[in-house]
Design a protein that fits this description.
This protein has a domain of 25 residues. 46% of the residues lie in helices and 0% in strands. The protein contains three helices and no strands. It starts with 13 loop residues before the first helix and ends in an 8-residue tail after the last helix. The mean pLDDT is 79.
Length: 114
């Protein structure tokens, strides 16, 4: 474990712990840095080694345009339904539902083949 700091202490000096932490951190940091290059390296590799297929479209020269998330859409020009129009739409929906229920009640259920 290491040499104790004093004869009465069982604590390990920080050197081995720091070395162990760095030995785990450095490879992980290198992997994280190299994965960023994977998208551009793959363009130049042959298809057999994991590169792009021959019929893949070429990358665009200009970066993709992001949507303007803070721009508000223009106000709607449509007006809201009046109470009479809402009532008419509800009645039409209820009539369609009732018609479908009657149709399904009249048709006998087919037995599922086993």
């Amino acid at each position: 474990m290491g040499i104790p700091l004093s004869p009465t202490s069982n604590r390990v000096p920080p050197g081995p712990l720091l070395r162990r932490a760095l030995s785990a951190f450095v490879p992980l940091a290198l992997v994280a840095l190299l994965t960023g290059c994977a998208s551009t390296i793959g363009d130049n590799l042959p298809n057999a080694t994991g590169g792009l297929p021959a019929n893949a479209p070429a990358r665009s020269v200009e970066p993709a345009v992001y949507p303007a998330v803070h721009d508000m859409p223009p106000p709607r020009t449509d007006t809201m339904l009046t109470e009479d129009e809402v009532k008419k739409a509800e009645d039409e929906l209820l009539a369609a539902r009732n018609r479908q229920e009657r149709q399904t009640a009249q048709t006998p259920e087919k037995k599922k083949p086993r």
